[in-house]
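Table S2 (continued). Query chain:
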Amino acid sequence: MTIQHLTAPHQELTDADAVALLAEVVATPSVSGGERQLAERLRGIAAGHGAESRLDEVGNVHVIVGHGSHTVMLLSHLDTVPGAVPFEHTDRLIRGRGAVDAKGPLTAMLVAALTSRDLGIRIHWVGVVEEETLWSRGAEHVRETVPVPDAVIVGEPSGASAVTLGYKGMVELKVTCDVPRTHTATPGPKASEILVRALDKLLDTYGADGNAHFKDVGMIIRDGRFEPFSSSCSLTFRTPPGTDAAELHRDVAGILGEDVEVALAYEVPPVVASRSSLCVRALSRAIRREGFQPAHKLKTGTSDMNTLSRTWRSPMATYGPGDAHEDHTDSEHILVEEYLTGIRVLRTALRDIETSLREATS
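Corresponding output:
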């Protein structure tokens, strides 16, 4: 599938063009680490539409639309989790891996940017790589190498009529247990037994329901290797505001006991935007103009909003069409009307942000 009619410079994008573009984006595989084909295609579409576009050192695709003294960044991710979802495109929906997380938001942001060139701001759209991996390499590269913009909207599925204010943070701990090697029939504690018993105690404190609420610490056990003399696993904690990663590390080590080593592998802080912040207000007003009462969400996962907010203090919010309950599922799909509504909301919000930034400096 191609979109040859998008290659004419400055041609206006219709709703039909926007839907065709999303269908192509969803149909293009882009599992984490394999985003290059999609990045090149989107770079080419943007360039053909008269925008400045480039790929950076890690494979992120950057598109610049418009000019002005203020920059608004629209950032979402190119990659998806593994697992095939049969592609389907009807008048009502588009089905496929990544349709919701986050190709719907990603494409809606690109269309909104390309059709907002008349605004007196510089719109910097970025499609980043490897958000679905532990390290969020693409967003980390943007944070470290791109000048801080005046405002940021991160693209993740919030639903077309909702704005995501915040996400839990994440603390990743690497847990290991080693004992002297003997014959497996020799009596004595084995590393696998020690670690399993220790993890059972940990689950009493951080059980499976810990991630049901934004205010609680949740935990999952990942990547386990349980062998008699050397056992290990990873512990992923979802952490609400106020959680100290070093203190959590000490608490977990104390529960697991002295026979188990615990090392901090990765940490990203939680983030919560104020409802009165520039981006939240603009998106909320835009949603009202579409006839909806805007909802404000706090999510128990993490996003690139967490990554950028490590050092950036710009007003931020997360927004995007799509039902987040479809994330990573075998039925992942996005409704066409929801996607088109998301584009309109983003266009209106960009205009609102441009006005607010101009008035603030006049």
